[in-house]
Write a structure and sequence with these properties.
Elements: H1 2-12, H2 25-36, H3 44-72, H4 79-89, H5 93-104, H6 108-133, H7 137-141, H8 148-181, H9 190-200, H10 203-218, H11 220-223, H12 229-241, H13 252-260, H14 274-320, H15 323-343, H16 346-357, H17 361-389, H18 398-431, H19 440-449, H20 453-480, H21 488-491
Helix pairs in contact: 1-14, 2-10, 3-6, 3-8, 3-10, 3-12, 4-6, 5-6, 6-8, 9-10, 14-15, 14-17, 14-18, 14-19, 14-20, 15-17, 16-17, 17-18, 18-20, 19-20
Length: about 500
Amino acid sequence: MSLGFLLLAIALLPVADLGIAGHDPWGALSRMGAGLLSPDFGAITALAYTAALTVAFAICGVAAGATAGFLLAPFYHRAPVRLICVAIRAIHELFWALLLMQVTGLSATTGILAIAIPYTGIFAKVFAEYLDEADPRPARAISPCSDAISRFFYARLPLAAREFGTYTRYRLECALRSSAVLGFVGLPTLGFQLDTFFKQGIYGAVAAVLIIYYLLIGTMRIWMRRKLVPVYLVAAVGFLATLHTPPMGQGALIRFLTQDIVPAPLRNADLAQPATWQSLGDWLQMLSVDQALPGLAATLIVAQLSLVLAGIVALIGLPLILRPITGRFGALLGHLMLVIGRSTPEYMLAYIMLQVFGPSMLPAVVALGLHNGAIIAHLMGQQSQHLATGLRPDAPRGISLYLWELLPRTYGNFLALCFYRWEIIIRESAIVGLLGISTIGFYIGTAIQELRIDRAVFLLLVTVLVTLAIDVISQRLRARLGLDRLSSHAATNRC
């Protein structure tokens, strides 16, 4: 299976646009490196303000998404609920933000909902898995006369409450990344500052933004305390309420639902006329042939190359964080590299790579490969660390320990994690199109810029269907290889 994925990626190389587009990558890297080594905190007041907004958007988005996901989790086994959850989480937060701007403008509501809507689908799935994996005996022991609500709150929820809290805290870390990325579409978060400073070539200020961002992520375990959650939530709501938002008009939502998302041939048309449906067919054919198919092909190429690169990065990165292989100092350095790789949002990383390599598939492949590879290596490291400390006294050391003892025992987990990330990489490959890379996100972004929302919605539906197909294929491959027995909450939905 691994060889098949590798050969497929090699076969796609001749049709992939991996050119450097006339850029001088080493010159760009040297200029960035010089700026990163001398961070400029001159605009510290503005940076602190946008950092606070980044946290506020994340907290409010997670609170809304976790609440909605909690309400949907008991019903997730029902097909309509599951399909809705899969569909909303298949669309990236940036796409949600671009759509919501047509209704709520560049407002706090847009930022909160852009995070909350896809996170609702994620929370519903993960919470449902925790409930299903909890011990069923307490629920069976309750009197048959008790109602379903009592059985849920007294017999099922207490067994999964701790996992709910742990996962919600982890999802907040993901939301900080999502919140930062929303700045690239105009919301006042750290991503907006990063985009501004990059366009001006002020790399010292870029370094300051990144340092503040990494501090937020790295110190979250210190400042995010369960007892302070209500205080943070109230403060976040109050802080976001101070944002000034230009009014969009009272009919924005009605116009969006009745005009904007309706295919152009059907607007104000006579549905009883065959010519109307002929026009709709021509419209669908035009979008499918000219935009959906080429965009989808580019998305799948980027995703396949990124998946294989992520696997290579994970296999190389895993031994770097294991003390028996690299020693204490080497393991600390390896952990630092993986933390930077997995903490930097894929969109932000692709944006940085775009400044180096120019507009081609290469920045997207490198960014997605590094980001997802760091996540996979981190998760494998958590499993391998236990194995490395429990080996026999005469076990080999160094690279031999990794190749002959640890890797064979964890390779099944490695493949499972790659399959779990496959769906997410498809989603991420689509979104990098907003940077000008020729994936389906490029056509979605263009349609929204031209206020052709109906076209954007059609292309988003295509993205959702492809994501669903990849998810089904991934599940079947895991089942065929016997990898579906692995713990779901150790591997799924890692952002």
